[in-house]
Design a protein that fits this description.
Radius of gyration: 30 Å
Largest sheet: 7 strands, mixed
Helix content: 10-25%
Strand content: 25-35%
């Protein structure tokens, strides 16, 4: 039976970009604009889907009898792109091909069009944030805060020392391979359109979707992608705003084929105004290869976006295949207030939602002044879900696409102000707006309960060496291996191997906030015949510690043991903690922060037990004040900042202890009124003994911490040996 296909437009990119008045650029050429007015099918071309298992002879007979030339063929889908020969009537050829016993369907090769107004790119001033920190536009990425990404990274660090993430395929307009957030992480690439290669993005859409999903973090440029340790498979299926169903199906097949792209996560921010058997076959092929597809739901929610023809909620495929193909996640768009974006499509096909309004992401360097742009659309909601799927698979590569999809659905937040049905979904948000933290927590087996009373984690340098791996004195070595042991609190009894969590090694240099150096799973060490869990961090850079003017410290954290005492180890060479003069804020935020923070301390009143002022090196008690700044700035958090500020203290080889939570007060300096947290009558008497080592640090609700001390040369203590009675492994 011949299907009567309406002439449709396959819509590129499902995105709307607001006009930016500070940007005169128009990325669409006159030729491309004219192309959008031409016919909506590729004249003279048909897509022929053959039945499974047909012979080569039957295939050749069907094509030879029907006045067509085969231009291309996707063997995995049994779909051919044929061109009607000159002098033949296309309608008659379609009828003739459909009558062939080997043919399952015939459909036109639909032309794809961009649905937005001409793209305008953002020209942000170079000092828009006044930041010098890594990823300067990270503080503007409100979406990462909304979906709880930073907290999720703490559960499963996408890049902070974790193994490389799983590949994510971006089927789009290519990607800027010179962009610092893309460069160096292209695993494979292929193009299925005429024109420049896959790493040339003349529109910017592919670079932007890739940036949202997996843009490199902590490289001092642009933004942070969600799965920022995942490599990318760049699949170019569109060029300058137009493409075809065949090209998209070809790209999906490449991305899913283990012998080619081999990606288990494929993002597609495209949609057609009618269903297509060829697209269905391509996505079903991806399903058979175990690939999950995140697909933009569409931007016709109010009918005003380009390509909607004024039809409210005009459906878009292949997102609408979600009820039929279980490897499809159809992604709707939410805004910064967790409401449905006005343009977002809705219906029973929607799986989940993700932020899609004013999303700042990467953009080709040739098309922008600073490598970023601000965009809106379900095009930029879908790659957030692709990034989350990538994190879940990186966390456990053995997971099936069904498990990953279920974790994403089950962990979503029920936002939007609309009721959810008994199954937990509605037509606007599906199962809800994604939550990275909850998804990764749901995918993480609960850690074994810690030993009663908490644990002590202690470290030792086991192999100071040079770049060639030669043993060097610890005071000269540029690199060291650091080994950690975890004991039951206050004892030399190691935790059992069955209760050995992942450990993170953190390092603080001078007055910089601490950074995570690496993460390690437990191994087994044997000392004097005693087997116990041990963690090793190799080739840790300690070259800065050679300069006595520097201050350089390590400590440990365990993501699975937050809330227990003794999870931190700090040490250095001098007992007398430096009490720096605190930076004075130059301004105060008006909005609550959405990114990392710096907590900085100052001794404001060294005194004795009677309350009399004393020199800082003689005082037995001090008051400590803490200011909290946006990371890398002198901009204070707002007066009503709700986060907790805690002070931790470490003495000698003892694990750090929490002294308490600061009391917030309001203070004014330099004409700026800002919040400050105070800790009164803190005991520092032990620091009067130069044989002691004594340090403070501040712990915030965000990942950043602040450590400091008196001497640069880090001491490498001998680690305690577990007692025979406390052997942790058999």
């Amino acid at each position: 039976m011949v299907r009567n296909f309406a002439i449709v437009a396959l819509i590129l990119s499902l995105f709307t970009i607001p006009w930016l008045t500070n940007s005169p650029g128009d990325l669409f050429s006159e030729a491309n604009a004219a192309a959008q007015q031409e016919q909506k099918v590729r004249a003279g071309q048909l897509l022929v889907g053959f039945k499974p298992g047909i012979s080569v002879a039957a295939y050749q007979a069907a094509t030879s009898r029907n006045c067509v030339a085969v231009r291309d063929h996707i063997a995995s889908l049994a779909v051919s792109l044929v061109e009607v020969l000159p002098g033949c009537d296309a309608a008659e050829v379609s009828l003739g091909m459909s009558a062939e016993s080997a043919v399952a369907y015939v459909e036109p090769n639909l032309i794809a069009h961009a649905i937005s107004a001409p793209v305008r790119f953002q020209r942000a001033a170079s000092n828009i944030l006044g930041l010098s920190a890594n990823d300067p536009f990270f503080p503007q990425q409100y979406a990462l805060a909304v979906i709880n990404a930073p907290a999720g990274w703490d559960v499963f660090p996408g890049s902070f020392g974790a193994p490389a993430g799983v590949p994510i395929a971006i089927a789009d307009t290519g990607a800027d391979g010179t962009h610092p957030d893309i460069s160096g992480k292209v695993l494979r690439s292929a193009t299925f359109v005429e024109g420049p290669g896959p790493l040339v993005d003349d529109v910017g859409h592919g670079t932007a979707t890739a940036g949202v999903a997996l843009g490199t973090a902590n490289n001092g440029f642009g933004i942070a992608g969600l799965a920022f340790n995942s490599p990318v498979v760049v699949v170019k299926v569109a060029e300058t705003g137009t493409t075809t169903v065949f090209d998209i199906a070809n790209g999906i097949t490449y991305a899913a084929d283990p012998a080619k792209g081999g990606a288990k996560v494929i993002n597609l921010s495209f949609g057609a105004s009618e269903p297509s058997d060829t697209l269905f076959r391509a996505i079903d092929f991806a399903r058979t290869q175990g690939a999950l597809m995140t697909i933009a739901a569409g931007n016709c929610g109010d009918g005003s976006s380009a390509g909607c023809d004024g039809v409210v909620n005009a459906m878009r495929w292949p997102a609408a295949y979600a009820p039929q193909l279980d490897n499809v996640i159809a992604v709707a768009a939410s805004d910064g207030n967790d409401q449905r974006a006005y343009f977002s499509n809705f219906g029973n096909f929607v799986t989940v939602a993700a932020p899609g309004v004013d999303i700042i992401s990467d953009f080709p360097l040739a098309l922008s002044d600073n490598g970023v742009s601000t965009l809106s659309g379900t095009s930029f909601s879908a790659p957030y879900v692709a990034g989350l799927a990538g994190l879940l698979l990186s966390q456990n590569p053995s997971r099936s696409y069904q498990t990953v999809k279920a974790l994403i659905q089950q962990s979503a937040d029920k936002v939007g102000g609309q009721p959810y049905d008994a199954s937990g979904r509605n037509d606007f948000f599906g199962f809800g707006r994604i939550n990275v933290l909850r998804a990764l927590q749901a995918g993480t087996p609960p850690p074994p309960p810690p030993p009663s009373g908490g644990v002590d984690a202690k470290i030792e340098v086991v192999f100071p060496h040079d770049q060639a791996g030669n043993l060097r004195p610890v005071t000269e070595a540029p690199l060291v291996n650091i080994q950690a042991t975890m004991f039951q609190a206050g004892t030399l009894q190691p935790v059992p191997c069955s209760e050995a969590p992942t450990l993170q090694l953190w390092r603080s240099f001078n007055t910089q906030p601490a950074e995570m150096v690496a993460q390690a799973a437990a191994g087994v060490a044997v000392v004097d015949g005693i087997a116990f869990p041990s963690w090793e961090f190799n080739d840790v850079d300690v070259s800065a510690a050679h300069d006595p003017l520097n201050k350089y410290y390590f400590f440990l954290r365990s993501p699975g043991l937050q809330g227990f005492r003794s999870i931190v180890w700090s040490h250095g060479q001098d007992a007398r903690t430096i009490f720096p003069t605190q930076d004075v804020p130059t301004s105060v935020d008006t909005q609550q922060p959405t990114g990392p923070l710096d907590g900085k301390i100052e001794i404001v009143f060294p005194h004795d037990a009677a309350g009399n002022p004393q020199p800082v090196l003689q005082a037995t008690l001090v008051n400590i004040a803490v200011d909290v700044f946006d990371h890398g700035t002198l901009r204070s958090v707002p007066l009503d900042y709700p986060g907790a500020v805690r002070l931790l203290r470490s003495l000698n080889n003892q694990p750090a202890e929490v002294l308490g939570q600061g009391q917030r007060v309001t203070t004014t300096r330099g004409g700026v009124t800002y919040p400050q947290w105070q800790f009164n009558d803190v005991d520092v008497s032990a620091a009067q003994n130069p044989l002691n080592k004594y340090y403070f640090r501040v712990q915030l609700d965000f990942p950043n911490v602040w450590s400091h001390g008196a001497d640069a040369r880090t001491i490498f203590p001998q680690k305690d040996v577990p007692s025979a009675s406390g052997a942790g492994c058999e």
